[in-house]
Design goal:
With about 400 residues, the chain is of the alpha+beta class. The protein is built from 10 helices and 11 strands. It has a single domain, classed as DD-peptidase/beta-lactamase superfamily (Beta-lactamase). The longest helix has 19 residues, at about 45-65. It is globular, with a radius of gyration of 20 Å.
Length: about 400
């Protein structure tokens, strides 16, 4: 059985193509022209004072005795209103205080990059959102699944963060994106529902999207992210995690200070595994306004909801969560949760406001950051105590996985 599994992995790698090394060569490439300046402007003192007491009250109310170990940044029109670094890189040794260059595991906030990378390739005419997965993966074992269904979580595919464990994956072996693809052929876990029928948040979708990015671009996911986003946006503290980064990357901790080590699903990327800082994430936010990175119609497609089977304000676009408030306002955001990492990245396009919280010690209070939206307009979130770490608009919580 083991030999057959190895053969299947090799076969799937062959079906997928040799793209992994396609982007790697010794050619010296010219440095990309930056899309935006790396300078950071701060709001004037009066504006800062107007917001600061409410921000301080939010932290006091929602983090209590456990405190907040992480970084945060709140901005409007690209100008920083409040920024802070609280706690330590290692909450046990407390050797080094957190600073502006400490990159946090974004967990599922990474999906915003994966989603926009696919849309970049779509914008360039290199793929179609209506392509079925058999275009990229020969004889893909689930019918009628399209690229767009991966992006908006309507594929119905089973979630690898659940079924690998159920199907007794050898946890001594690190799973890769190609392993996730191969497992769909070999294990063939049952589909959740007919493709396109409804929404169900699924990390498998974004693991497969990362492979599609690689095949279409001819570059590794890591290279594509660096060359398309990180370098042009001067996000110099951001990177995609590799196994060799384990010792240097920011560790994460459970609420009781138990440290997480490298586990068997930790090398799968696309759904997670981008590390970044609050300042780099502000650059990412601002790049989605200036028109140099994406066309307006691309952003409109990304920030449109696609799941209306159930009533409510929560929805999902193409790589982005949405809260569509009853009064017509829209919150564009994503949360993240992987091991002890909790992250929130919120954009209010109407006010050009940004709310970013990144933590590496598990604390559900981080997900209450949507309350801060009411600092900027009538978003009706101040009384919302729901700690939104779950993964779908119907409020059903996915067991495990990157949220």
């Amino acid at each position: 059985m083991k030999n057959r599994f190895v053969q299947l992995l090799l076969a799937c790698a062959g079906l997928y193509g040799c793209h992994q090394n396609a982007g790697k060569n010794t050619e010296v490439k010219p440095a990309p022209v930056p899309v935006m300046s790396a300078s950071f402007a701060h709001a004037d003192k009066d504006e800062v004072a107007r917001y600061q007491s409410s921000i301080n009250a939010f932290f006091d109310k929602n983090f209590g005795s456990r405190g907040f170990n992480g970084s945060y940044l709140i901005a409007r029109n690209g100008e920083i209103i409040s920024e802070g670094y609280k706690g330590y890189r290692d909450v046990i040794t407390k050797d080094y205080a957190l600073g502006e260059h400490d990159a946090f595991h974004l967990a599922s906030v990474s999906k915003t990059f994966t989603g926009m990378a696919v849309l970049k390739l779509w914008e360039e005419g290199k793929l179609s959102l209506d392509d079925e997965l058999s275009v990229y993966f020969d004889k893909f074992p689930y019918k009628d699944v399209t690229v767009k269904m991966l992006l908006n979580h309507r594929s119905g595919l089973p979630n690898y963060t659940n079924y690998l464990d159920v199907y007794k994956w050898d946890k001594k072996k690190m799973a890769t994106n190609l392993d996730v693809l191969a497992s769909l052929y070999k294990m063939h876990p049952p589909i959740q529902f007919t493709a396109g029928k409804r929404f169900s948040y699924c990390n498998t979708n974004y693991a497969l999207l990362a492979l599609i990015i690689e095949k279409v671009s001819g570059k590794s996911y890591h290279e594509y992210m660096e060359e398309t986003f990180f370098i042009p946006l001067e996000m110099y503290d951001s990177y995609v995690f590799r196994a060799e980064d384990e010792k240097s990357s920011l560790p994460s901790f459970e609420w009781n200070n138990r440290r997480y080590g490298l586990e068997f699903m930790d090398l799968v990327y696309g759904d997670k595994n981008i590390y970044s800082t609050v300042r780099d994430m502000l650059k990412w936010d601002q790049a989605l306004y200036n028109g140099k990175l994406f066309r307006p119609e691309t952003l409109e497609a990304a920030f449109t909801g696609y799941s209306y089977e159930k009533s409510g304000t929560r929805n999902y676009g193409l790589g982005w969560r949405l809260t569509e408030v009853e009064n017509g306002r829209k919150i564009v955001y994503h949360n993240g949760w992987w091991h002890g990492n909790n992250t929130v990245f919120i954009r209010l396009p109407e006010e050009k406001a940004t709310i970013i919280l990144l933590g590496n010690k598990y604390n559900r209070g981080i997900y209450r950051a949507k309350q801060l939206c009411d600092l900027f307009g009538d978003y009706r979130q101040s009384n919302n105590l729901f700690q939104e770490s779950d993964s779908d608009p119907a409020n059903t919580i996915a067991a495990g996985g990157s949220q």
